[in-house]
Amino acid sequence: MTSPSDPLSLLLAERGVLLADGATGTNLFNMGLSSGDAPEFWNVDHPDRITKLYADAVEAGSDLFLTNTFGGNASRLKLHEAQGRVRELNRLGAEIGRAVADKAGRKVLVAGSMGPTGEIFEPIGALTHALAVEMFHEQAEGLKEGGADVLWVETISAPEEYRAAAEACALAGMPWAGTMSFDTAGRSMMGVTSADFVKLVGKLKHAPVAFGANCGVGASDLMRTILGFMAQGPELPVIAKGNAGIPKYVDGAIQYDGTPALMADYAMLARDAGAKIIGGCCGTMPEHLRAMREALDTRPMGERPTLEQITAALGPLSSASDGTEAGCGDPSHNHGRERRGRRRPAS
Predict the structure, then answer these.
(1) Residue 146's pLDDT band (cuts 50, 70, 90)
(2) Of 60, 123, 167, 206, which has the fewest CB atoms closer than 10 Å, so is most exposed?
(3) Per-residue pLDDT tens digits for 67-97
(4) Distance between CA atoms of 218 and 229, rounded to whole angstroms?
């Protein structure tokens, strides 16, 4: 078997562990994005702000960053009457990233973000496999045209959608990485456990070059999911991209309570647990990334942490079980509800 030659695998082989980027949505809201607006429009209207978003991650030490294209599929853009602009908005999001990465002075990868369609698959909903593949493929081609190094499928909750995205990435002839969000008592919104996900990834015809978890509830819950992956003995590199603490409403806005010090501890624990690509999701700012970079560069490797060590460092778990134990789990306990009822930027 030949060694993988895609850009992500090559950079992993060179550096061992990679630091991904932080939040897209949180940073863009701080730049003036209004809730309910499509962040992807800024790839045209405010390319200087998107350049800053990417450059801030690179300057903080990220080895890769995600493009501002999380909601760039036809289904999500239709909410803004922009379903005809999929190729354009994705191409521009990647082109801006390509320019930033090429000026970085070191190898930095542009990861083309592809979020969920927001639709439910048949027979419960109306979305067919063929239509999902078509939507993801259209987005993938735009990101490819713009110069993305790898496609980055994220925040998926349904196995059917993950399989459709995999097929679309294959049609585009692009390497890809893909994460699910485990925000419902340790399961995805559609009931997938960490163990289920490893099995799903293992059966894909066009496998990702890395897989893992993003978003969810807090860093402790995400770390439990990472331990769940590792218990299955996965062959592929694992991604950990957790939120900066827990979301809280402060003065009418959502804020995350994770400090740079907490995210530094999280990065170290994720690495020690076996994750190879470590980043932040909602609430993760450049100051968090700098602390994570320093921790990964300076703190010695430790043993795989226990759940007790994780909660002592990062805070309590939001649910008693993650559904991987026989008879355990409570899929009705939805901790991710606060972000499901509205269009969410990348993070």
Answers:
(1) very high
(2) 123
(3) 999 999 999 999 999 999 999 999 999 999 9
(4) 17
Two structure tokens written together for 162: 């993950």
Give the Cα separation of 148 and 301 in Å (integer): 32
Q: Which helix (H) or strand (E) holds 211?
A: strand 210-215
Note the residue count of the chain: 347
The Cα–Cα gap between 295 and 213 comes to 21
Cis-peptide, bond into residue 123, ω within 30° of zero: yes
**Nearest Cα residue to 94 out of 180, 34, 174, 167:** 174
Residue range 249-257: average pLDDT? 80
Q: What is the pTM of this model?
A: 0.93
Across the chain, mean pLDDT equals: 92
CA distance 313 to 264: 10
H-helix segments, 183-328: 194-202, 219-231, 260-273, 286-298, 307-314
Element (H, E) at 66: strand 64-66
* C-alpha count within 13 angstroms, C-beta hemisphere, residue 230: 19
pLDDT score recorded for residue 329: 38
Name the packing angle between helices 129-145 and 86-102 (round to 10°): 40
The two structure tokens encoding residue 96: 């801006």
- Burial category of 291 from C-beta neighbours within 10 Å (exposed 0-12, middle 13-18, buried 19 and up): buried
Show the CA angle centred on residue 253, arms to residues 252 and 254, nearest 5°.
135
CA distance 256 to 248: 6
SS3 assignment, position 64: strand
Element containing residue 159 per DSSP (H, E): helix 159-171
Return the ∠ at Cα 106 (arms to 276 and 209), rounded to 5°.
Answer: 30
269-288: pLDDT as tens digits: 999 999 999 999 999 999 99
Identify how many contiguous H helices and E strands the chain contains and give both numbers.
Answer: 13, 10
SS3 (DSSP) at 241: strand
Whether the CA torsion 157, 159, 164, 169 is positive or negative: it is: positive
What is the token pair recorded at 67? Answer: 């493009």
